[in-house]
Amino acid sequence: MSNSLFQEFDPVSAKEWKQKIQVDLKGADYNETLIWQSLEGVHVKPFYHTDNTKTPFCPIPGHPDNWAVTQAIFIDDETIARSLALDAIARGAEAIYFNSDQSFDLEKVFEGFPFHEVTLHFRFQFLEKPFLTSLIEYLSKKEAKTFYHIDILGNLAKSGNWFHNLQQDHEIAEKLLQQFPSQNIIAVDTSLYQNAGANIVQQLAYGLGHLNEYLNHFYTNNPKGQGTDLSLTLKVAVGTNYFFEIAKIRAFRKLISLLGNEYGLTISVHVLAEPSRRNKTLYDYNVNMLRTTTECMSAILGGANSICNLPYDVIYHKSNEFGERISRNQLLILKSESYFDMVSNVADGSYYIENLTEQLGEKALELFKKIEKNGGLFKQLTIGVVQKKIKESAQKEEKLFEEGALVLVGTNKYENSQDSMKNDLELFPFVKTNPRKTIIEPIIEKRIPEILEKQRLEHE
Questions:
Q1: Which of 169, 184, 197, 380 could make a disulfide contact with 152, Cβ separation 3.0–4.6 Å?
Q2: Average pLDDT, the chain
Q3: Distances in Å between the alpha carbon of 247 and those of 197, 325, 453?
Q4: How sure is the predictor about 56, in pLDDT bands with cuts at 50, 70 and 90?
Q5: Are 197 and 446 in contact (CB under 8 A)?
Q6: Are 439 and 160 in contact (CB under 8 A)?
Q7: Looking at residue 3, what is its pLDDT?
Q8: 3-class DSSP assignment, residue 150
């Protein structure tokens, strides 16, 4: 029946569509009225058509069939962390993302833990080989599916320093790779770039350059690594530009596959996505729930394997049961009530998204080649080029916010003048200054509305 229905309509070419649009514009200029340019320099057209498709769309390598509802938990007190993890699993979490700034008692954290039911992620703010070795051996015996997120270059970019020093950090990472070749050791965290204000092309190019530093060091200098498979964990922060963010994750997979081919590697990519902090607001904070919902939707449609939502009050409240439950339930609603787990490749074949994927990928590859021509990402970080470019991109966004072209509802438009936050701050919501000696300029995360929020707080 559906085939006969479509046969009732004559096909319409791209040329005919454009002619019809121009007639309806009644003399207005087509390009100036309907084509807009993104911050990445992508010209977005009012419609996309098969006539404009030069080559068939290629499948996205490694696109997952499903995604996991992920809960972030900070390990301070081991007993409390264990209790929070078990409670989150009982309430629907399918993966746990543990964060820690020091070693911890494994038996206390994992007593009675359902290792076969959930995936484990770890983010360490330290690098100690004895502890990491014992952790990996312990979880290997438990047959847990685990991602360790070791990202020494990411730590350098964020803190301005190595964990120990250049040589020791690389030696620890290399020994872990050699000792546990089947484990998911190495990670590339691009969320820092997004949260600091980098545009999508920059995020893609810096992420690719970030990965290339690891491949060049561990898989060129180490003959045992060549011709093998590599398991990579990629962490991304998802912004509010809905379709562009879908295309970003897809472009990441294609670019990483392309880079792996140059090393003779098959790279298996596990994408952990979380909403951006950059557009989250202090005032009218409930709007953050709307922002994180659409950002999680982009992550799902883009092909993230694990999605860790942010609580609506994350920028000013300490971790609390209500905020964590709401953020987790947002994902559970998307999966169980909105059927976002029924089809894994919804974006495949969408002319608009496929076109965005190609354009973002091409622009990012061009920028990546420039970075490599000038010594690679590490060198560009040490001389401050990456930091400078991200600042320039962030300033463009912040200017649009100040001018009202970039709208954050409840903050620079439709704000509630009676909204008061001064007495609700449990955490300092702005960029913190921590004077210290660093070997490079750190990349600083900063939210777009900070200046305006400071002014409002001062006048409460």
A1: 169
A2: 94
A3: 18, 29, 31
A4: confident
A5: yes
A6: yes
A7: 59
A8: strand
Judge contact between 361 and 370, C-beta under 8 A.
no
Return the closest-CA partner of residue 63 out of 354, 347, 258, 259: 347
- The answer to whether 188 and 147 have CB atoms below 8 angstroms apart is no
**Which helix (H) or strand (E) covers residue 131, if one does?**
helix 129-141
Q: What is the mean pLDDT of residues 331-337?
A: 96
pLDDT band at 225 (very low <50, low <70, confident <90, very high): very low
Burial class (CB in 10 A: 0-12, 13-18, 19+), 68: buried
Per DSSP, the three-state class of 74 is strand
Read off the pLDDT of residues 342-378 as tens digits, 9 standing for 90 and up.
878 888 889 999 999 999 999 999 999 999 999 999 9
Helix (H) / strand (E) element for 244: namely: helix 242-262
Yes or no: say if 144 and 117 are a contact pair by the CB < 8 Å rule. no
Number of Cβ atoms within 10 Å of the Cβ of 427: 12
Question: Cα separation of 240 and 280, whole Å?
Answer: 10
User: Among residues 397, 390, 324, which one has the least CA distance to residue 73?
Assistant: 324
| Per-residue confidence band for 433, with pLDDT thresholds at 50, 70 and 90 | confident
Among 356, 98, 148, 386, residue whose Cα is nearest residue 249:
356
**pLDDT tens profile 111-121:** 999 999 999 99
267 vs 261: CA distance, rounded Å: 9
Q: Which amino acid is at 58?
A: C
HEC string of 367-393?
HHHHHHHCCCHHHHHHCCHHHHHHHHH
Tokens of 145: 């599916």
More confident residue, 223 or 365: 365
341: tokens are: 């787990």
Please say if the pLDDT value at position 446 is more than 50: yes
Q: Exposed/middle/buried for 235, CB within 10 Å: 0-12, 13-18, 19+?
A: buried
Q: How many CB atoms lie within 10 A of CB 134?
A: 13
Pairing of strands 229-238, 184-189: parallel
Of 13, 51, 59, which Cα lies nearest the Cα of 354? 59
Task: Indicate if the pLDDT at residue 226 is higher than 70.
Answer: no
Q: How far is CA 18 from CA 46, 138, 229, in A?
A: 9, 62, 47
The three-class DSSP label of residue 264 is coil
d(CA 449, CA 446): 9
Tell me which residue of 238, 312, 321, 237 sits closest to 281, measured CA to CA.
312
Coil, strand, or helix at residue 330?
Answer: helix
Q: Which residues contact 203 (CB under 8 A, 6 or more apart)?
A: 190, 193, 194, 236, 248
